[in-house]
Specification:
Leucine-rich Repeat Variant; single chain
Length: 214
């Protein structure tokens, strides 16, 4: 099924859509994967019904597929999964929302970042960074939060933006923030690592642009 996009046949669309609802042969996960690989957007309504499927692999493939095939209309169905007890599902959901993009997806991710329900939210930090430059003012403000956990994750996200506007804030946190998170993470250490990440991203962009120019 990984090669479905290569050997795509329009005649497969109808059987794949039918297979999404077929519980007899335990093939729904593969049907979901096939629909995603073949860009079958007509599958979206059925995919939404599979988000609470009892099999984890079906939920996994469904969230990923909705990130590829869905638009802003599926965000309300995906957003609650950011509060799921399974960390892998929260991460898949954040990735899907980032891929969909747009204001609704950003608001869903930001709400979870701001009203944190889990101690480790690196997946939110990395996906929020993908909304640069729109998200930068929010992240810079979060870096001034009285909550050390929010400052910590804001620093992580700012590093992943690769944006020079984040540098003064990260340098300030690295130099003077003695805050510690609920899992004993130091804000200044997060800021130091974030600066390294930011520089690596910038170096990679410069190298890529130089290669293209050459």
């Amino acid at each position: 099924m990984n090669q479905a996009a290569v050997f795509a046949d329009a005649g497969l669309q109808e059987p794949l859509l039918a297979a999404l609802g077929d519980t007899r042969y335990n093939c729904q996960a593969w049907a979901v994967k096939g629909c995603a690989a073949m860009d079958i957007r007509a599958a979206v309504p059925q995919l939404l019904t599979l988000l609470d499927h009892p099999q984890w692999i079906v939920r996994d493939e469904t969230v990923t597929a909705l990130g590829l095939l869905g638009d802003a209309s599926v965000v309300p169905a995906l957003a609650p999964l950011l509060g799921d007890q399974a960390d892998w599902l929260r991460q898949r959901t954040a990735d899907a929302l980032a891929r969909i993009g747009g204001d609704a997806a950003l608001e869903a991710l930001w709400s979870e970042f701001e009203h944190r329900r889990f101690p480790r939210i690196g997946y939110l930090a990395s996906t929020l960074a993908l909304f640069t430059p729109e998200v930068l003012p929010r992240l810079l403000a979060a870096a001034d939060s009285p909550d050390p956990d929010q400052r910590y994750w804001a620093a992580v996200a700012l590093g992943s933006t690769g944006d020079d506007q984040a540098v003064p804030t990260l340098e300030r946190l690295m130099a003077g923030d003695r805050g510690v998170t609920v899992f004993d993470g130091e804000v200044r250490t997060a800021a130091k690592k974030a600066l390294r990440t930011l520089r690596r991203i910038q170096a990679a962009i410069t190298e890529r642009e130089t290669t293209k120019a050459g």
